[in-house]
């Protein structure tokens, strides 16, 4: 398959199987030999996912979605994205190659695809998009978010903040990495910049394999916050309860404040990912267990601290996974709340008296963050949310205190660097 055909096939699989792009594209990219073809394929896949609403708006001016075969509509969206955003590729080349893919799907519609994309190409600079005076259209077609999700955030955060969240999640964030040793090997050949929130984090236009070779780990600063809240907490055992791929536990281990950090996850594949990452980072991981943390798997009152990065809807990571916007539904936004409640209870049971549970989710949904934690502490007498910077550094306090709401935790709002996150620290009194 060529680039356009491969991109179309990846998108189709994402939308049919409701999977993340990272779960789908590796097997397809293996069939492309040229690295430039691989990059262009991913550019189209991520671009269509990021701006699907805007692309639909443009395409609907020249074709009727209800009268167009679903596969052909999706294929034309890939063409519209290239015509609007990939200015280095001549329009005639985009149209020709998209039509060639259409011929393989249904030869009878190739002329239709050709005519529609030519019309888009001629008119693209004269198309205006809805303003926020028409809020529903602005959310769907200008900001490219499903209406149900945009309006939910308007209700949860207020209109001004919700629109800012959506704009931030449409940004391509720089690749942020945390170095466990010395960043100087990367500085010899690349320009490396410090990130604004956490000391020891950097960003730069550096190949991933070089980042790993330098014993650095790709990890958003919001994700780094959970272990950073335990940087100065001392104890014998810490548990990273849902650890894979291991980043939070790696950070916790690097601080050296615990005799042992236990890495736990639910499957062999997930544990193997932790071990693979630890080997690349030259970190010794000696305590690793496999258990379903929704069920009691550890002795009560047996560890000093637990990090629970619970499974969630992932809506705070839309910048890096824009397909989440289109594969989530109103129903499955809340589908993991029962799991989160069980896991938080088990984390609290495992921790000793005086110990701490740090609960986090990479979600913008308050049902998965604030509601889970507040409901738990209100029903458990000796559970108390406390000021989360007690065991962190002053740098962390300065960087993140603006996100703290007393009695609830830290609601991290996305920006140029940060993913959306929720983090809370709970003490067993």
Question: What structural class do the secondary elements suggest?
Answer: alpha/beta
The coarse silhouette is globular
- How many individual β-strands? 13
| Termini gap | 60 Å
Mean pLDDT rating: 95
Number of domains: 3
Feature tags:
single chain, 429 residues, N-utilizing Substance Protein B Homolog, Chain A, four-stranded antiparallel beta sheet, RNA methyltransferase activity, NusB_RsmB_TIM44, transferase, EC 2.1.1.176, S-adenosyl-L-methionine
What does this structure look like?
The chain has 429 residues and is of the alpha/beta class. It has three domains: 3-126, N-utilizing Substance Protein B Homolog, Chain A (Orthogonal Bundle); 135-169, no CATH class; 221-428, 3-Layer(aba) Sandwich (Rossmann fold). 46% of the residues lie in helices and 15% in strands. The protein contains 18 helices and 13 strands. The strands form two sheets. Strands 5, 6, 7, 8, 9, 10, 11, 12 and 13 form a nine-stranded mixed β-sheet that branches. The chain has a four-stranded antiparallel β-sheet with strand order 2-3-1-4. Strand 6 (258-265), helix 14 and strand 7 (288-290) form a beta-alpha-beta unit. Helix 1 packs antiparallel against helix 2 (21-29), helix 1 (3-17) packs across helix 3 and helix 12 (221-228) crosses helix 13. The termini are far apart. The model has no long low-confidence stretch (mean pLDDT 95).
Structure at a glance:
With 429 residues, the protein is of the alpha/beta class.
Protein topology:
Elements: H1 3-17, H2 21-29, H3 35-59, H4 70-85, H5 91-105, H6 110-123, H7 135-142, H8 147-157, H9 159-169, E1 176-179, H10 184-187, E2 193-194, E3 201-203, H11 208-213, E4 216-218, H12 221-228, E5 235-240, H13 247-255, E6 258-265, H14 268-280, E7 288-290, E8 303-309, H15 324-327, H16 337-350, E9 351-361, H17 370-379, E10 383-385, H18 394-400, E11 404-405, E12 409-412, E13 421-428
Binding site for S-adenosyl-L-methionine: 265, 292, 309
Active site: 362
Keywords: Methyltransferase, RNA-binding, S-adenosyl-L-methionine, Transferase
């Amino acid at each position: 398959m060529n680039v356009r055909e491969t991109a179309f096939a990846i998108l189709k699989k994402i939308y049919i199987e409701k999977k993340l792009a990272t779960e789908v594209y590796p097997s397809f990219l293996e069939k492309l030999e040229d690295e430039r073809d691989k990059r262009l394929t991913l550019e189209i896949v991520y671009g269509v996912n990021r701006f699907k609403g805007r692309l639909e708006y443009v395409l609907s001016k020249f074709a009727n979605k209800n009268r167009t075969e679903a596969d052909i509509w999706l294929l034309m969206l890939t063409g519209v994205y290239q015509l609007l955003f990939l200015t280095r590729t001549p329009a005639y080349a985009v149209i020709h190659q998209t039509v060639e893919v259409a011929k393989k799907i249904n030869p009878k519609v190739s002329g239709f695809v050709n005519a529609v994309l030519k019309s888009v190409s001629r008119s693209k600079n004269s198309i205006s998009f809805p303003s926020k005076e028409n809020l529903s259209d602005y959310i769907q077609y200008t900001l490219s978010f499903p209406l149900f999700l945009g309006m939910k955030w308007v209700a949860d955060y207020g209109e001004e903040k919700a629109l800012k969240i959506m704009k931030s999640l449409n940004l391509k964030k720089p690749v942020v990495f945390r170095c466990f040793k010395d960043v100087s090997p990367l500085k010899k050949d690349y320009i490396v910049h410090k990130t604004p929130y956490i000391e020891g984090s950097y960003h730069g236009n550096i190949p991933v394999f070089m980042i790993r070779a330098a014993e650095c780990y790709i990890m958003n600063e919001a994700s780094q916050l959970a272990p950073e809240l335990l940087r100065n907490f001392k104890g014998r055992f810490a548990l990273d309860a849902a650890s894979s791929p291991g980043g939070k536990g790696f950070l916790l281990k690097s601080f050296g404040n615990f005799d042992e950090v236990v890495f736990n996850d639910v499957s062999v594949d997930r544990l193997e990912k932790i071990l693979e990452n630890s080997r690349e980072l030259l970190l010794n991981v000696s305590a690793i267990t496999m258990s379903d943390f929704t069920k009691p798997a550890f002795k009560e009152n047996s560890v000093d601290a637990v990090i629970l990065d619970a499974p969630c809807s992932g809506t705070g990571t839309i910048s890096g996974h824009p397909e989440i916007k289109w594969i989530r539904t109103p129903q499955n936004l809340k589908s993991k709340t029962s799991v989160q409640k069980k896991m938080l209870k088990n984390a609290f049971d495992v921790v000793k008296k005086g110990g701490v549970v740090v609960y986090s989710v990479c979600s913008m949904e308050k049902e998965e963050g604030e509601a889970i934690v507040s409901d738990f502490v209100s029903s458990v007498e000796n559970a108390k949310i406390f000021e989360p910077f007690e065991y962190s550094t002053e740098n962390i306090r300065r960087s993140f205190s603006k996100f703290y709401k007393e009695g609830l935790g830290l609601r991290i709002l996305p920006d140029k660097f940060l993913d959306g996150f929720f983090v809370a620290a709970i003490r067993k009194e």
